[in-house]
Request: fold
Amino acid sequence: SSYTFEAVSQNHTIEVIFTKITYTITATADENGRISPNGEVVAEYGTSKTFEFIPNDGYMLDEVKVDGVVVEVSDNKYMFENITQEHTITVTFKIQTFTVTANCTFGGAINPSGEAIVEYGSSKTYTITPMQGYEIASIKINNKEVEKTTTLVLENITENKAVEVEFVKTKYTITVVCGEGGTITPQTQQVEFGSSITF
Reply:
């Protein structure tokens, strides 16, 4: 960084041009998402550079490493501040998971019951079995009533879900037919399973 004029015997000029030092930040992501900007990113000395992490559909941020060390990030972004050396940044993504909660009232069973963790886009099958003398009154998914069935299939799950099954006692109809010359009371009735009625 120096130049020496020796045995000076005439006029001279000397000119020096400076340029900012630049550093390379190598940015990579796995196949389940991307990092922006990507590849070898050039940054000038003392500047800052922000990287954004964009997961593919059904994936979420898993881990970010800067120079081989795991770092915390917020809003799926990371900023290098006051850059004075070269860096690497790598990001990995993981598939999203959701919770499916299944419950039922007395009078039967849903299998499996309770909470289940499922991956994005997957399916989950439930078997609904009423006890003797009971039947399915309603099936609701996220408080929306769906068709009654003993085999419930949740397909392409992309959010948390709550499955609620309500059972009621089965009712039977006793039809009253009475000819002339007398009466029978009460008239035609619906009677719950296992109960008694007198005519």
